[in-house]
Records
---
Amino acid sequence: MSEIAVVGSVAFDTIETPTGRATDVLGGSATHFAVAARYFAPVHLIAVVGDDFPGAERDYLAGRGIDLAGLEVRPGKTFRWAGRYHEDLNVRDTVALELNVFADFRPRVAPAVRSAAYVFLANIDPRLQADVLAQFEKPALVACDTIGHWIETARQPFEALLPRIDLLVVNDEEARLLSGERNVVRAARKILGLGTRAVLVKRGEYGAILFSPQSVFAVPAYPLEQVFDPTGAGDAFAGGLMGALAASGDRSEAGFRRAIVYGTVLASFIVEDFGGRRLSTLTRDDIERRYREFVALTEF
Amino acid sequence: MSEIAVVGSVAFDTIETPTGRATDVLGGSATHFAVAARYFAPVHLIAVVGDDFPGAERDYLAGRGIDLAGLEVRPGKTFRWAGRYHEDLNVRDTVALELNVFADFRPRVAPAVRSAAYVFLANIDPRLQADVLAQFEKPALVACDTIGHWIETARQPFEALLPRIDLLVVNDEEARLLSGERNVVRAARKILGLGTRAVLVKRGEYGAILFSPQSVFAVPAYPLEQVFDPTGAGDAFAGGLMGALAASGDRSEAGFRRAIVYGTVLASFIVEDFGGRRLSTLTRDDIERRYREFVALTEF
């Protein structure tokens, strides 16, 4: 089975939603991705935390079977983020942001990890994404996430990175910002023109669409009675997707589509509780059960 | 093949979108529904127009094979509506509304039409919907549309109608208004509690979800490079859906699902030009081709 490497953030999140509040829960893009992907394949985590990072959290990640050799510990505090979601959970405000040790993060890929076949560049500065990508030998598939902030403030380095990316994962709004197009199909065509081999546009409760030059694949989201906290949904989606690809080794159109459904399934679970809590009790059986429910929900 | 009856409006629409403007194009909920449904099965139109209604428009509808015996002509002017869509095409303002002869519309179902197996109550006053429904003998399937205006101003008669409805067709916003729930799953559960056998929630460019007490079916929309004018999309959706059901006679879960995909396909065509223009050149072959494309777009 192929191995996955993820570079991104490990953080503590304080989250307020219309239904509740959670303080200092384990979060960060690399965390959510790694936990989701680990259901399917070996995962190497490349990130940085402060020397305040509790042993219990480290044990939790290690206990999930995630390789933490690349989790650097530096003097100082771990990255902290606080956000508040609106009644419309698609909208959130950042209330506080303390980069702490993450401000000087210079990801190093250990020799043993450089041969990883699947690389996920979670949301960090695109210059760091480029730098870390160059340290891998010959990945079979590179996927990349970003946020509006980098599109606005580091467009040139971000665009320079795109021809080295197999799959760009963005949401509706980021796709618009990057392309200047409101319509999702035209936005995706323009983004493909920038050099990425495929682009997956995530649309929250409305599902996702995969665009490549050869084809389009649209899936609805799994309909939930309650979305408790959307934090980490995009990273869990990417984790399920990359994990399923690494496990099957099937990067055909059909393999990609099934992997996207696994991504949808993982995203549908993580939003059922604050931060990554839901994943802490989630089993592989739960995932397979919901995958089958998803088939039943969409087949015609 | 079963016959379909639709009661609703025939109107002239003046439409402004970010990409253009069209004046006095043939519109109205019953018009768009009837043209869409007629690709599949015989359709009886029950509506009213003024004595200004041009012979050419009448000929167009008759030429499509729609039974116009129930199209009453009254002294006065035909219903006129003018609307303006925002950059976000999900939002529109009504600029002008002249009910004209439609203000006194009292739909009468001719004896020959009372045996129709499929009845669509397009958006009109729910008291009229109830009244017209009572004139049918024993329809196999009754579907019903509405708008926020009736939910707000005629909730009691509308709710009284629901236990007589097999399929309520609403959009996201109407589902919220009717149920008081923001989440689409909880909204649908509450609406089912009001007595309709099933509820289809249309979500524009994001697709649709069918809820019944036994199952849920989610479909994305057909992704279009340009949505030219959303007017009539909901009615064309309902027309494709009811048409396909009437043609197949298959009201099983599987039959419903295929019919919903036909609805999706018809909606995807009508938005490609102003009002119902696109349907004037659309062939059944075009519909089947896009149905197959839709299968390819969604299968995994």
Note: Residues 253-270 of chain B form the longest helix (18 residues).
---
Amino acid sequence: MAKAVIQAEAEADLGRSAQKRRAILKAATEVFLKAGYLGTNMDEIAALSGVSKQTVYKNFASKEALFVEIVSSMTNMTGDMVHNDAPKLGDGDVAAYLEDYAYRQLAAVLTPRIMQLRRLVIGEVGRFPELAKVLYERGPLRAMGMLARVFEGLAGQGHLRFDDAMVAASHFNWLVMSDALNVAMLLGDAAIPKPAELRRQAAQGVRVFLAAYGAGK
Amino acid sequence: MAKAVIQAEAEADLGRSAQKRRAILKAATEVFLKAGYLGTNMDEIAALSGVSKQTVYKNFASKEALFVEIVSSMTNMTGDMVHNDAPKLGDGDVAAYLEDYAYRQLAAVLTPRIMQLRRLVIGEVGRFPELAKVLYERGPLRAMGMLARVFEGLAGQGHLRFDDAMVAASHFNWLVMSDALNVAMLLGDAAIPKPAELRRQAAQGVRVFLAAYGAGK
């Protein structure tokens, strides 16, 4: 075969592999959230994703590896969405900038899918502590780390003042998120606040945050 | 029988009833936390508490009623402990007063038993939404309501300033509790912060709270 043909076929193989992998992840997410971690088996995931069980195992060594991949990709996507899409502050108002950041974080995290995932791993901490540990590290811990770096930048520009960027990031994170998160955890997806209420909570949280950490204009 | 004898026997009956009720609640708490809500049955609770299944049902109409009673008594006890034992502010320092309140709340709530209960109901929100609703109402919502009344008193004495006592109470609650609660939820009982760390988090949370809501001296 000509070199170009071989290359095209290799690319098509790669495309098919990536497609299968995506189908497995999508099906697995459905099954995990519906049946719980213990109640999920690889046969059902294979059947739902339209691939063989062997293909599932070729992509993911175990049920745990598959679950960890789901948590990672979901939390990475959410974190990137909040962080990478963040506008630059420029000459703008720091309060408005932080309110926007807070609202985008709330809107990205307070989704039925992520709330269901969080409830699932919390309910399984006793039996499967590793699952929640992954969610903790890739979710809130990573988000607060990214926020701490943003805050260091803002402090460098004279907008914020603090001793410990991680403590400031934690206070910001929980001032903004906790009420909505607690309600969603305990009262279910239907209790996730609507966008207008999330904006109100973002603004109220930022006001308290800036009273403590703002450096004036 | 003489009146005194009848009365003494009636009191002994009441005492035995109360004792049986306590034994059932204690046994049920163990079984629920070990086996989960779905995995718990009334036979096991009866066996562990040393009473007949009939006696269990005489005290609690259903598994749900029994669970609700456990959540209620555990959260009421915790809330009362934080709230009723609170010292009066008097002429003292409002920051020290709030730090003490915050620390006592953290120490009362961040216990393995309450964390296990919270994880259990969160994991069952999909199947048994009523359980978490009870925890929400008797736990954080009640605690924040009591806190709001404390804050209204402090505002009346000129120590705090706010538009909405419930928003101030929510900010206080989550500034102080969220980091520890999130860690305990996701990393398990062994990750519950030690008293010195809880004191540090209480002090940091109060500092931010007072920057926004303090009224100076």
Note: Chain A has a mean pLDDT of 92.
---
Amino acid sequence: MTKKDLVVLPDVQSSEDRRNLPIQRVGIKGVEAPVLVKSLGGSQHTVADVEFAVSLPGDKKGTHMSRFWTLLEGIDEPLAPVMMVGVMKDMLASLRSTGGHIRFEFPFFIEKAAPISGMKSTMNYKVVLSAEADDGKIVVTQKVTAPVTSLCPCSKEISKYGAHNQRSKLSVAAVLETNFPIEKQVKLIEECASCPVWGLLKRTDEKYVTEHAYENPKFVEDLVRDVAIRCIDEPAILAFKVEAENFESIHNHSAFAIITYDKREHS
Amino acid sequence: MTKKDLVVLPDVQSSEDRRNLPIQRVGIKGVEAPVLVKSLGGSQHTVADVEFAVSLPGDKKGTHMSRFWTLLEGIDEPLAPVMMVGVMKDMLASLRSTGGHIRFEFPFFIEKAAPISGMKSTMNYKVVLSAEADDGKIVVTQKVTAPVTSLCPCSKEISKYGAHNQRSKLSVAAVLETNFPIEKQVKLIEECASCPVWGLLKRTDEKYVTEHAYENPKFVEDLVRDVAIRCIDEPAILAFKVEAENFESIHNHSAFAIITYDKREHS
Amino acid sequence: MTKKDLVVLPDVQSSEDRRNLPIQRVGIKGVEAPVLVKSLGGSQHTVADVEFAVSLPGDKKGTHMSRFWTLLEGIDEPLAPVMMVGVMKDMLASLRSTGGHIRFEFPFFIEKAAPISGMKSTMNYKVVLSAEADDGKIVVTQKVTAPVTSLCPCSKEISKYGAHNQRSKLSVAAVLETNFPIEKQVKLIEECASCPVWGLLKRTDEKYVTEHAYENPKFVEDLVRDVAIRCIDEPAILAFKVEAENFESIHNHSAFAIITYDKREHS
Amino acid sequence: MTKKDLVVLPDVQSSEDRRNLPIQRVGIKGVEAPVLVKSLGGSQHTVADVEFAVSLPGDKKGTHMSRFWTLLEGIDEPLAPVMMVGVMKDMLASLRSTGGHIRFEFPFFIEKAAPISGMKSTMNYKVVLSAEADDGKIVVTQKVTAPVTSLCPCSKEISKYGAHNQRSKLSVAAVLETNFPIEKQVKLIEECASCPVWGLLKRTDEKYVTEHAYENPKFVEDLVRDVAIRCIDEPAILAFKVEAENFESIHNHSAFAIITYDKREHS
């Protein structure tokens, strides 16, 4: 291919559009890519599902999708909240746009010691690191979802023995202006559950988690409230959305709850 | 069970909560249920994924999840936009709440005649019928997603022969205050694609759809703009969100575009 | 379209193939269709994911995909094991093949009364009804998956109080030569769990299911063995595969177990 | 925890079972773990979904699930076919079993240069590396799935212009006794498609892939046959299963085909 070839091929996307309808978002999604993510004291390798999009003015026919790829391949530092602002600015400059979003969803791994035996195993957490830009304002959100155990207070209270419990997904999507370690966000969440979960548990550990959950019964409503209180107390978090979903062990459906909170409206 | 039993068991959910944090949404999801849906001139049987949630004031410990089930089992008319207002009012009354949402997602079936042979087959479309209430205001949205063919204008223009094409999902989420037939919303969408898709196509039909798509090349941006113009012209639609996703045949990722538009802000 | 048009269009699929490689299965999948399914004393409407495939001899270039659709649209009785033999024979005749498979996967609904309050709600179960043909022999399998509660015997035994429990999927894929009601297959499965699950449970019911599960602790190994024993005792079942998957409440992964058993090899 | 505590806790799993029903497979699944995978000239980081299972004799009540974790955490070389034999032997020894399976599913990444512009981008392929043991015999399978473009020969032949095309998934599950590079298995597959796919394509590349696909029309049957012939010619592959699925651009369902072939039965 020579420069001449490029000139010869018509650039349909750049032609004028007469429908005059702005497009809020146009981009690519479902891109799977190996990425490096900032961790406490270093970084870790993982795999992300990636989405890039920009806004398109009413008089432009199309965007240039291949530029998103150049942007993605060019990222040269571990993913973290603060560097997302730079990636967003690069994207808006490259695609000559004033709005857009960027989204990386990936599993994040933490080596955890079992509560009694101390045996180590690797736990996985789902993280979504995203940036949204509109009219020049860039907002970065770090969402961490931790699997936990929840144990029903009502079931415990009314039953002669036992209490139904189940795996729950408990998450915080935090609006941040500084880096906030994923490990710290995981800890904030896990401490609000009936009990955290682990990969490997020996019998002594199983005894501990069973009794610990029984001593800490929580409704799905309690989960989101307790996490919300921790988020309010954490200065790095400017606004947040807490979500809990209980995969009920006595039903074939989930119970869920959501709290959204913006500290800037409460100060 | 007697009344006495009920009195004996403590009602933990109804106790007072001192954290004083309102919960925006608490409810159930992942409920799978057989439902009847309003269709042109009648109704059809299908299966829905159902979600119900309400808001909970800061001083209430928990909601009463079983009441959502009573509500669901009590629905006695085919699902449609207008009746959703009634279901919402019943839910808010039953759970003594001022906000919440209701969501039914289901496949909807339309018998279509192939374009040339006229042979009939059943096409499936995904529909999400939802209602959202906040501070007494209820908004009902009917989202219809149609699979269609999109053919790339750039690929057609620059190539000696052929043009890459692929299956796309094209959807309209329409804010409605009256019933609007799903069949009509499907037609509005399909007419904006490079070509609709069918279940059964004979060779004469395949010739037609191949040539028809080639004669109607559309970028993902064209798909959302053309549908948006049709929505603007349709008086029943008060506001809308149009989304297109192309499962690109030359990539392992999707191209997508979104237009949101509220007529009440443009009049 | 006239007969003449059909003659004019070349039939590429019917041409000879010189690679001489037989194809074990060729067909369509991902077809979503409304279906009627036989139930105890009648039938019910549901929605199925459908797959049809045949074998293709080494000298034939392609199969005729549209004939699968004609077959699907022509089914005129409720789905059940015995009628699947007829559908298979029709498919093999229509596509001039000696082997193939047919698969319908659908949710099946049963109205259940809660164990103490007697309040009714609709439970959903996943069913896969399939037929496989090779060299003229047709085997029909009915797989039913029921969500249940499992409670860990080890956790109960070693802990001062409580015991971890969770939702499990417990299934039987039964080879049948007669119709066997899905409701009966569900019951066979549910009776082997620590406790069945329900849609709607009042507090008196919740007390019951909590205590009932605590009194019936089962490992994932116990679940498959207890179901297997029931299947061995059930004369209608000729061979079976039992699977259990526990969505562990103390881990972020599942425990699972499988037993396969063919009575014809044990008699 | 002291040794004494361990002795005190009863080991329920090790107790005798009187139902005398062997369990073919019992283990863990849904484990997400960071792994290192062998690549051409080195190794790469990725994330795997992991499954481990063993067979359990009829007189043993349960297996020891935590040992699977010890095994997983102890793997100290990049994943590849030959080392899987060692992992299997370790598992059977650790769990005192004679049968079982191991399964790693992960995305694998290859940097590809676009066909004309030469611009580089990272493509992702799905790989399943698995081992199965029964009665002491261990079989290792490496399955690679590549997304490709398929273009319909019938549509091309009967239409005045254009031809419907779509993304397809084309895979080979190869039984191997030596290491066989994933990159080589990808290449074998991609060369049999109407055209490979890339992440980033400039306009000159788009012209190439459009024309190249048009010049190489293939039915789903052609895809599996052409790949099968390549597998027969490749000495490293002892037996194989080839699968193709076309996400038809003119339908809302897939066409698919499967060839299974064991060279040891054809020699």
Note: Residues 146 and 170 of chain A are 5 Å apart (CA to CA).
---
Amino acid sequence: MELMIPLDGQSTVPMYEQIYLHIKQEIRQGNLKAKSRLPSTRTLAEHLKVSRSTTQLAYEQLLSEGYIESVPCKGYFVSAIDALVEVQDHPSGLFVALEPGEEEGIQVDFSPRGIDLNSFPYNTWRKISKNILVDDNKALFLNGDPQGEYALREAIRSYLHSARGVCCSADQIIVGAGNEYLLMLLSLVLGPDKVIAMENPTYKQAYRVFESQGYQVLPVNMDKSGLDVGMLDRKKSEKALADKKGEPDFIYVMPSHQYPMGIVMPIKRRQELLAWACEKEGRYLIEDDYDSEFRYKGKPVPALQGMDRNGRVIYIGTFSRSIAPAIRVGFLVLPKNLMAEYKRKAGFFASTVSRIDQNILYQFLTEGHYERHLNRMRSVYKAKHDCLMGELKGLEQAFWIAGEHAGIHLLLTHKEGISEEVLIARAKESGVRVYGLSRYVIHPENNQYPSTVILGYANLTEAMIKEGCRRLKAAWN
Amino acid sequence: MELMIPLDGQSTVPMYEQIYLHIKQEIRQGNLKAKSRLPSTRTLAEHLKVSRSTTQLAYEQLLSEGYIESVPCKGYFVSAIDALVEVQDHPSGLFVALEPGEEEGIQVDFSPRGIDLNSFPYNTWRKISKNILVDDNKALFLNGDPQGEYALREAIRSYLHSARGVCCSADQIIVGAGNEYLLMLLSLVLGPDKVIAMENPTYKQAYRVFESQGYQVLPVNMDKSGLDVGMLDRKKSEKALADKKGEPDFIYVMPSHQYPMGIVMPIKRRQELLAWACEKEGRYLIEDDYDSEFRYKGKPVPALQGMDRNGRVIYIGTFSRSIAPAIRVGFLVLPKNLMAEYKRKAGFFASTVSRIDQNILYQFLTEGHYERHLNRMRSVYKAKHDCLMGELKGLEQAFWIAGEHAGIHLLLTHKEGISEEVLIARAKESGVRVYGLSRYVIHPENNQYPSTVILGYANLTEAMIKEGCRRLKAAWN
């Protein structure tokens, strides 16, 4: 079977996506019948004059969505409709941010999880990868240091010191594959049966990890300066708090730019947090500095860790937002006094990041590419931020707008209290997806925040932002 | 400063290692003084006409061993001796297998952890990597499926089915970065406060993970067929067993080739294990099939998982041994009845392997490279195995030799009972490192096994094996 797929080399839609969309449509429209055999990825690639990985990516996506099946040693076949219905239940997770129109009828998706990959320095990344593999570097294929390669940790230390004011040595840094993994490792170091206070709303993935590790999580509501430390002592944070085991051992905070509220914690509140941590042995603050790189107004706010003189702050950072989610590299900075515990309780966990990837990242950092990339992204995101702020002008009578000047999303709180559900539903009817604040709230049934929706803008073009805002205004006014 | 480093392009010692060794020697001999500045990696690379990543790897190793220090924005400097002593305490983990002579005086290191990287298809790996990055494959830089890319899981499924007789669908496979991570994920799925029986001696890393997750571990001694299921019911496995919480919920076994004992579990014992698992709700067998690829005699033994008709076997495998440790890719195969639990309790853990690496591995598997590589490695390891068996001839009067025909190590048990410590010490005096069985024993203070040492041969040349055996005979006879 030969597939005639019209490819547009000038399109912004990547080749593999054009192939994927075409075959999907052919199957949906019944032009490709169930059980019919597709050409191999190699044949199709030769036929279309594209590389094989392009056709493989397209097939991979079709496989994961259940449109086609792979039969070992035989090839790829169009799925029967039954099979299709069954497998569509599986969340494929692919294209989450790339394909805003994936859900029927959605034209503009203000996803707060997206990042802009159009400005990613693919050439540089490719060149570094190639050079690393060109050498007869056998050692790269062996197991490395459980904490991550020393040179990479040193490069991270140097960056954190100059950009974030973090004070540490490379010995205190642990490199790992993603936040969930690192938080799991951290909870091994901190020990079982602990109580942790978290800002509410918060980064739900962190909440899920702590829950999965058997921690009791105390959600603490915020005022305009962020988490109110006084609430903890007076046990007012949530009425549930008084009934529970008691006071927290740790507080998980995002002082540089709270997710999702966008609050930058003022210095006084930070000092209160540090004082709280020093009051009792064994108390720690876990500072998640997930997107501090993006700030468009005023001076960058140094990390809480840099203010700490008593080894009470555990710092966690990631390259998922500043480089790309698939890089799968984040890092923990432990206070010196926790290093012995780390080595004893979790030091046997081999590093989850391959030495090859560590080496690529190391060169990306030390050769200045990271800094250049961040500068570029700051201006890309600032332009999108400014565009969105401008386009939201007509909505100011009905909404309070918050979270500007930093990060890659904004919050819109309705002044009259039209519910989140109604705002989301009306937006959806107009082909726009926005996200309710309540999805970030721990125990959303107790959500005390006024009706708020979140608009992420990182992976939208300015044209899409404009179109999205036009539709939102029509839907909400 | 210019460094004159004599490089030997014909040597089997890689370039970066020659550079590393030369500088280390210069520092040790005092030719390079503390605080003196080294050339930048770029300058040195240009000077020596090697690629920059070669000099970077050399410096990285020197950094991690504390011979040099990096001062941000200034460069690399020779460390003072004080600093050197301090940082040498850190286990760098580098070159564990590559550099047998690292410890003073050791000429031949029969490490059971080593693998042979001389036969690794670097060119193929490089070519695949290059092709994947050549395309404008933005999607690869986004987050993927938490279980791993569907196409890769399908490729693993197909391999497991044909090579190991494992029956599963791609939906039951979870790809993750390394065994420790996957076992941690598994213990989240299985729930807290469980009792797990493990073969004793065993793979200590797995033991450490289960302990770290709060599991009670019951070490069970083995007979010549492996773990004796009867021992569990009669609570005879170890006197500690009777005092403890009771019977196990799970059994962790390596039926294809027990590590480190090298026992291949006979069919009858396997059936007993499966019957044990079916006796009670919630019982599972965890089958670690870590090096089943290497078998030199007789038919390959299919996995226990393939015999299971009741969804009681959890299968775990890895590419660390069959490809390379640094690949950091392993996988779990869960029974269907555990998938809902997985999704509920651990499905939010994002994949720890980057999509780029998953794609490289996918192509390595599906384009036939893996099969060819395994065939090549089987013959490489068989030749080393046969060489070692031949060279051990003179030791047969004093030792029983076990664990042959499979895997990449042998066991030597002393017939007269000269202690492990003495055997190891005498070998060391002769410049040979061998490994005591007791390091794999849970609660080594209760070690009931006769004096046994382990000889791994994967990363030794035949000449080194011969030299090592010559020395061992002189030391032990």
Note: Residues 261 and 403 of chain A are 6 Å apart (CA to CA).
